[in-house]
Amino acid sequence: MKLINSLILALLFVVVFSGCTKKQSSEYGLKISETLRVSLDTEPPTLDWMKATDTTSSSIVYNIMEGMVAYNLNDPELSLKPALGLSWSASKDARVWTFKIRKGVQWSDGVELTAQHFIDAWQRLLTPKTASEYAYFMYGIKNAKAFNEGKIKDPKKLGLKINGAGDLIVTLEQPMSFFPYLLSHTSTFPARLDIINKFGDNWTDPKNIVTLGAFKLKIWDHDKAMVLERSPNYYGTPTKTKYVLGYIINEKSTVLNLFDAGKIDAIKDLPAIDLPHLRKKPEYHSHGILGIYYLGYNVKRAPFDNLKVRKAISMAIDRQEITKMLNAGHVPIKGWIPVGMFGFEKKLGVDFNIKTANRLLDEAGFKDRSKFPTIFYGFNTNENHQRIAENVQAQLKRNLNITVEIKNEEWKVYLSTLKSKPPHIFRLGWLADFPDPDNFLNMLTSTSDNNHTGWVNPEFDRQIINAAQTVDKKERKRLYKKAQKIIVETDLPVLPVYSMVEHLLVSKRVKNYPMNPMSNFIWKDVELVK
């Protein structure tokens, strides 16, 4: 069935492209010379930026919207630069922040941006019925956590107000030196409640959505393609490319064939199995990014409610074998922070040790391996994830003599599964939303909706809160090291596998394609050359 579907998809693209190569780049009536054509791995689950949690949705949002601040992506330190916020300052204790909003910025429908649009967005982000998985991002704001939990009903009690000059004043519960970095993330972008209330669940449709980015959403042909168009209302320098056409194609082999045929200009997440010959192409690029690949354990599902089982499984999986098999340059890690980020710890975590792993499984009551239940391993459909799942399956059979069944699901379905009933083991990755350890460690706190393990540790939560409130960098690093030790040595609700390296193919006709440690694909500076 998979082969038949692949052939149908390939034939569809042949028909589409062969019928329009003379004057158009696609069936969407776009000139090749004006259109950057990229590959999207999957249908974006949502373009509601307060609800989006995946990289595909975020890559579109980052191009049709902007936030208070942005990154200097060419700066190794990833410093912040003004975006919709013209400037910002903090009180001496970093507890009260003042943001000056850029004047004259217009939404795509001509309405002028105000500080109120940020307040509206953050109140909606924190409103319980929104059910945003990123609500915890803003828990630093005074009364935000209590409001999100329904303990406070009045949004006016949040630490948000506008002064006489139209500046946004944010009062925090405690000092937070990295607070502005949070405002680079999509979930904190401003919003138009009048549009959201008017169109309900359909507010992100191309005919309804209003945005502030360099591009605007022109077409969303579900499960097929998306088209972004240069926004005439953008406050900054106009995009160098008029259109971006993103083809939604799950099969990497199809995408690679289209790239070789000159029908697609850029591909990311290249299949590891193809890297040996893809590296020889002049269009090949790679670079390290601030992201980790990890396995999560459902600690509420037996036998993973047993710490010795979790530790045995972790010690029976050889990360080196996985990265060697992938041959993609990924760096095996035992800690929770990626290579290159403040807080990275090389010596934390459990080592690969088959003898100790078997002893722990014996002590857990499974000396007779026939009594050990079948483990279910879940992952979203992807060739690389499939190879890793099969490798883990083989390792656990070889090293512990236990049976693992693997199951893949399409991204939307997989996300739903993680929320409702996670399997024993599930695979996920985490790319930095902002370059600080808090971003990686906070996701495993008891209040985080991104924590699918079911694991709760009050001491871990306290360490993360204390570190966020600490201004001294050395003390923050000490606290984060202590917190990491809890998750990768003491409790083991997760197993970090590797720190990511990104691989891309970029056509020779493309200039200034974005490549950066944050893996942010913002296309406004991309140029197309003959």
What does this protein structure show overall?
This protein is an alpha+beta fold and 530 residues long. The chain contains 16 helices and 19 strands. The chain has helices spanning 2-18, 55-64, 115-126, 144-148, 179-182, 193-199, 252-260, 275-278, 307-315, 319-326, 354-366, 383-400, 411-420, 437-441, 458-468, 473-490, and strands spanning 35-40, 69-71, 80-82, 85-90, 96-101, 160-162, 168-171, 215-221, 225-230, 243-248, 266-268, 284-297, 331-332, 375-380, 404-409, 425-431, 494-506, 510-511, 527-528. The strands form five sheets. Strands 11, 12, 13, 14, 15, 16 and 17 form a seven-stranded mixed sheet that branches. A four-stranded mixed sheet has the order 1-10-9-8, with helices on one face. The protein has a four-stranded antiparallel sheet with strand order 4-5-7-6, with helices on one face. The radius of gyration is 24 Å and the shape is globular. Mean pLDDT is 92; it is low at 1-25.
